[in-house]
């Protein structure tokens, strides 16, 4: 599948892969900062943003999409930064194409399996009747009983757009996500990857525990772990300066 992407800057290539229900626009701020040092390419995953929709939605397909993009852009070797779902895609890509990776950054996700925990979000999104909801404020009000966290609602609503005059819609493929949500939580432990890898987590997030990192070291023996204080799962948005500082230090070392 051909993926939508935006490209900034010059230097060694840096691919940025967003998380579930996100889009490349979530990473435009960091991408412009990285572009002062790297040829920075932010990508919409399949079923997200402006990339194509497909009922097939799993890490094998997303890894293949990244490989196709690298081939189309004549990229023989890349740095990859992946957050959450994008981090799992990046890990799988590194395990299958280790010769193509220079440095790997995995933001707030481990290669382990995660139980499905998006049920309330999916229920809220599936409850939206866009034939009746005529403003973002009305959508926010409809989502609130399902998703009390204002930051999560704001994140989801970044993927909302006007499909036509007076009718809102979502850019991500909600049906494909809902039907394949268990696959998005599956483990990505196909092989060992021995290249330089930075795992970076938010101190307030529970996605990478200390025990998880001990397990990570088995599959990623050259991995290091950084923690950003007072940040949760969306650490790049909550603490952008610290996130940039730690990731750039790793990429430029």
Short description:
With 253 residues, the protein is α/β, with parallel strands linked by helices.
Q: Based on DSSP secondary structure assignment, what is the total number of beta strands?
A: 9
Instruction: Output the radius of gyration.
Output: 18 Å
Helix percentage range: 25-40%
Distance between the termini: 34 Å
User: Can you tell me the number of structural domains?
Assistant: 2
Instruction: Using the alpha-carbon principal axes, give the shape.
Output: globular
CATH architecture of the largest domain: 3-Layer(aba) Sandwich
Structural class: alpha/beta
CATH topology call of the largest domain: Rossmann fold
- Can you identify the CATH class of the largest domain? Alpha Beta
Largest sheet: 7 strands, mixed
Mean pLDDT: 96
Largest beta sheet: what is the strand line-up?
1-3-2-4-5-8-9
Number of helices: 11
Sequence stretches where pLDDT stays below 50 over 5 or more residues: none
CATH superfamily of the largest domain: Alpha/Beta hydrolase fold, catalytic domain
The topology string of helices and strands comes to EEHEHEHEHHHEEHHEHEHH
Strand content: 15-25%
